Amino acid sequence: HTGDSVTYFGKGLSPFFLALSQWFGVLITYMIMKPFSRRAIDSGVSAFRVMLYTMIPSVIIGFAQSVALWVVQVGVLKVEPQHPVALFGVLVFVSWVFISAIMALNTTLGPAPGRLATMALMSLQLVASNGLYPPEVQPKFIQWVHSWDPMRYSVDLMRYALFGTNGGDPRMIRATLVLIGIAVGSWVVSCLGLKHLRQIPERDLHPELSV
Description:
Shape: elongated
Oligomer: single chain
Low-confidence stretches: none
Radius of gyration: 20 Å
Strand content: under 5%
Largest sheet: none
Order of helices and strands: HHHHHHHHH
Number of strands: 0
Mean pLDDT: 85
């Protein structure tokens, strides 16, 4: 006889850990591969094409990661999502958004500072994402981060795919629109950063002589 059960405890934490793993996966990807190609930058093609030169392989890697996460969740852990096809689509979509955002950090700050900023944002987002603790019981600063946290909207979408939602819930549409806006904004920032990298600093044209 079962008295008290925690049947949905692991499933309840799945949206948080899925979103976190997608962000961490992109972080590792850009630790292994370069976030941009110096050769492509110097080739003279448009900044958008330079961005796609790195983004397309990254999206392929992110797609493979999404497949692995879906198989583990549904096939290995036997987590039964309300919308299994939507869960796979959300994983691919979130991976693309995170790739866009992290690429923007790397192109504007540089590879090493970009990785540091990515890790710092990951730590900040995971406490503000509403995946573990409600933001209402957290400090005001965390509540402010929660208002724009990309991981928060990713968790919302994954909760919808896993548990469904009542009709008329605006969070799913809002999360989708916000994440698309973050991705498009990140593309703009990446293109501007790549254009800036094409400019050769004066210190490189006229290096200082050292004795």
